[in-house]
Amino acid sequence: MTRRCVLLGLAGLTAGALGSRLVRAADPAQRVVRLSIVSPDTPSGAPPSFAVFWERLRELGWIEGQNLVVERRYAEGRYERMPALMAEVVERNVDVIFTAGTRGAMAAKNATSTIPIVAVGMGDPVRSGLAASLARPGGNLTGMSMGYSEGIAGKWLELLQETVPRLSTVAAIVNPDISVHRDQAKELEAVAPKRRLKVQIIELREVAALDGAFEHARREGQAVLVLASNVTLGQRGQVSELAAKHRLPAIYNMLEFVDSGGLMAYAPDLAVMHRHAADQVDKIFRGAKPADLPIEQPTQYVLAVNLKTAKALGLSIPESILLQANEVIR
Q1: Which of 177, 224, 293, 320 is 20 to 30 A from 63 in CA distance terms?
Q2: CA dist., res. 88 & res. 169, Å (int)
């Protein structure tokens, strides 16, 4: 069991043991609130860290079937369905809409200017027009931005260089429709020559193109960087299998890929982000306005390594990597 899973498990046990006392301490208003979950993914495609969102809401006293009604909608990986799904939940007169990603947030903002919105995993909410600023978003939206720090692309390349002997070319699988992916692709192309590397950008927009993307990656490079999207995160098991099939050491920008068999990830902890998002939902239920709740960004990054995958690839993970790792799957 991984260190992160152990910590989350202990947190869950503590919450369970103190559950009734926590609920009484929270003492939410004696009314039923309505929360809408509108996800671009499938019901099974949500990252495991999403469970932390529900755990935190329960800790705060919001319990589905008692004082919390949940409306769930899933786009099944088809973003073109998001506007219609948002229109449905707006008609249901919910108290808060919870969604994911920049495009999910945009669909929610386009559907309503009055119902509060909490979104996780946004790219740059200011540049995309979702918020006036991170500190004071204005309007009806707040949430969590991925907020990848400057230099993150160089760190991904550095970790691959330390892990893969004689590395010369890295294939990067990105979705060019996602603004943060475009930014990171440019950063990769700028920083790679400084590390005496080449980067081959491979565009991926749909699940049907996954096989072809990894075949392309195998032809072009000795390792692959996979940036998370609704396609890659929702199919993370298949993504890890394809990397293994093509004998490609892979690094990811979300920790959930390592839990699904990926080699390594350097990323913000989505469990922390979902916990903070639940805190924001709780504050809105109690009367806070999204306009006054800062959009939060990750402040720490986590390095996770899967030694089982490394062994299958015939790789020996250097001690320098293991000493940095926050989570090691053995």
Answers
A1: 293
A2: 47
Contact between residue 143 and residue 105 where contact means Cβ atoms under 8 Å apart: yes
3-147+270-292 folds as: Rossmann fold (3.40.50)
Helix axes 19-26, 50-59, angle to 10 degrees: 70
CB of 280 within 8 A of CB of 56? no
Residue with tokens 């001690």: 319
CATH architecture of the domain with range 152-267+302-329: 3-Layer(aba) Sandwich (3.40)
Q: What is the DSSP letter of 207?
A: G
CA dist 257 and 240 (Å) reads: 7
CA distance 34 to 93: 8
pLDDT, tens digit, for every residue of 304-321? 999 999 999 999 999 999
**Strand 198-203, strand 327-329: pairing:** unpaired
**pLDDT tens for each residue of 28-43:** 656 899 999 999 888 8
For the stretch 272-300, what's the b/e string if a residue is b when 16 or more beta carbons lie within 10 angstroms of its beta carbon? bbbbbbbbbbbbbbeeeebeebebbbbee
pTM (2 decimals)?
0.77
